[in-house]
Design goal:
Blueprint: H1 8-15, E1 23-26, E2 31-33, H2 34-50, E3 58-62, H3 68-79, E4 82-85, H4 92-102, E5 106-109, E6 118-121, E7 143-149, E8 157-162, H5 164-176, E9 184-187, H6 194-206, E10 210-212, H7 220-230, E11 234-237, H8 239-248, E12 260-263, H9 270-280, E13 285-286, E14 298-299, E15 312-313, E16 318-322, E17 335-340, E18 347-348, H10 352-358, E19 359-360, E20 363-372, E21 378-383, E22 388-390, E23 393-395, H11 397-404, E24 412-418, E25 426-432, H12 439-449, E26 458-461, H13 475-483
Parallel strand pairs: 1-10, 3-4, 3-5, 5-6, 9-10, 9-11, 11-12, 12-13, 25-26
Antiparallel strand pairs: 1-2, 7-8, 8-18, 14-15, 16-17, 17-20, 19-20, 20-21, 22-23, 24-25
Length: about 475
């Protein structure tokens, strides 16, 4: 019987039955071996069933990152429930909307979420209950877990993933990123996000590795300390953390145990990549993913690695760039990325229109504009709705933002085009800078590196950039703000 035809949680315990004393999960306060993890998962699954929760019912998980999240997620799957991880920072109205869309019957939470659902308190997760000995046996194509994607609009879409996606994701990504039983994984994005959840649980535990996590915001101090104290081998981050490590990690060194640092979530500007390599003598691998295919779908082949690219398709995944007429682009030309993957979602729940638009036969339409190099690597250009046209010429906001970020005084920036008061569209750069860099210097740097039509006409200083719960810049919000 293959994993896809049984139960992912049960498969982990069976696969690593001889590793019961090996450490599986570590947070700020608790460490669980594979044997203890099995006991807690079966116990919590038993408690869920004792609360009259039945297979194929949805259960929201709203917790800050700790060992309780993997136990809750795997416990739901062991019992046949559909876990729906959400951000611990989500507002009550957003939580109510997700509960309504998913038809959730319960919420596992560390707070009193009064939204009309049965509340499963966090303290029950590691408490001793009667174990559920008979796991739920999934069909490979049966609904198993749900992910949320806010994208750049901030409006959550609920994606339904089949059980076989867990097996396929482990099989593809663990091999691509060389994760095995000797690996020690630290994933800094939260587990409410497909990127954090599936690298921490599906890949790390599926491979028999050890996963490390912590509550609260990721900081350079936490990251460097955790790496050094535990001899971490794989670090998964987002570009904002790379920038923060550069700013606050002067004099630090990357522990030689680290075999890979992978950045995803947003494109990593080339300037940040180069600065990080210069400061720490280490090459970050910039990749890309999306919740519609669970998580990362590109990797960097050592034989074709090119800085400034997001690599190429993970072996077992197909990627195509297409023109607006659905024909393939030629090398060097911009096109929309389409993916064929064994881990793609089934649909957006209760949203037929967007499901039909995104899931096109065996392919997933990403909404990302990219181009391909001669070596086969992809270069990210922009989201479909973020691609800018100035004076009849295309401008990639990523290229302009990367140029501005060359200034050490700039912490973050976002570039948009907007037509104000009926005028032609112009480029606006929203800049976050604690060091108070001047607008003239920013324009000077851009003029030295970019073509004239790519130089922002307006530099606006802001305290912070609007972002989704998955840390993506909400450029659409910035465009709307300009019209207010």
């Amino acid at each position: 019987m293959t994993l896809a035809e049984t139960n992912f949680s049960a498969w982990i315990f069976d696969a690593y039955a001889d590793k019961a004393n090996k450490v599986a999960l570590v947070d700020d306060q608790v460490s669980l071996t594979y044997g203890q993890l099995e006991e807690h998962v079966k116990s919590f699954a038993g408690y869920l069933r004792s609360q009259q929760l039945l297979p194929q019912q949805r259960v929201i998980i709203r917790l800050d990152d700790s060992v309780t999240v993997p136990v809750a997620f795997l416990g739901c799957i062991y019992a046949g429930l559909n876990p729906v991880p959400v951000s611990n920072d989500i507002m009550d109205d957003g939580l109510t909307r997700i509960a309504d869309i998913t038809d959730a019957v319960a919420i596992i939470s560390d707070r009193n979420d009064d939204i009309g659902l049965k509340i499963i308190k966090e303290q029950h997760i590691l408490h001793k209950h009667d174990q559920l000995e008979q796991y739920y046996q999934y069909h490979p194509d049966e609904m198993c877990f749900w992910l949320l994607s806010s994208g750049s609009s901030g409006q959550s879409k609920c994606m339904v993933h089949r059980h076989s996606n867990l097996w396929n994701l482990y099989r593809l990504n663990a091999e691509a990123f060389a994760i095995n039983q000797n690996s020690k994984i630290m994933v800094t994005p939260k587990m409410s996000w497909g990127y954090g959840l599936n690298h921490t649980i599906t890949l790390a535990l599926g491979a028999g590795a050890t996963a490390y996590m912590y509550k609260g915001v990721s900081s350079p101090t936490k990251v460097f300390n955790r790496i050094d104290l535990n001899d971490i081998t794989h670090v998964f981050v987002v570009p904002t953390l790379i920038a923060s490590m550069l700013k606050h990690g002067k004099g630090q060194k990357i522990n030689p145990t680290v075999s890979q640092i992978v950045s995803a979530g947003e494109p990593l500007p080339l300037s940040l990549y180069e600065s990080f390599e210069k400061e720490f003598n280490y090459q970050v691998k910039d990749c890309i993913g999306m919740s519609e295919v669970v998580t990362i779908y590109t990797w960097h082949n050592p034989n074709t690695f090119e800085p400034g690219t997001i690599g190429t398709a993970i072996p077992g995944v197909e990627c195509e760039l297409r023109n607006s007429d659905d024909t393939k682009t030629t090398v060097g030309m911009i096109g929309e990325m389409y993916i064929k993957s064994p881990v793609q979602a089934m649909m957006y729940w209760k949203d037929k229109k967007r499901s039909c638009y995104t899931f096109v036969g065996e392919w997933v339409r990403t909404g990302d504009q990219m181009r391909q190099t001669d070596k086969g690597n992809f270069i990210y250009v922009a989201r479909n709705d973020d691609l800018i046209k100035i004076q009849g010429l295309y401008v990639s906001p990523i290229e302009v933002e990367s140029t501005i970020l060359m200034l050490q005084e700039v912490d973050e920036c976002a570039v948009v085009a907007q037509s104000v008061d009926g005028n032609l569209p112009e480029l606006y750069a929203f800049v976050v800078s604690e060091s108070k860099v001047s607008a003239d210097l920013i324009k000077k740097i851009c003029a030295q590196s970019l073509e004239k039509h790519k130089v922002p006409k307006h530099i606006l200083f802001v305290k912070s950039l609007p972002k989704t719960l998955t840390n993506k810049k909400m450029r659409n919000t910035l465009r709307k703000d300009l019209l207010c």
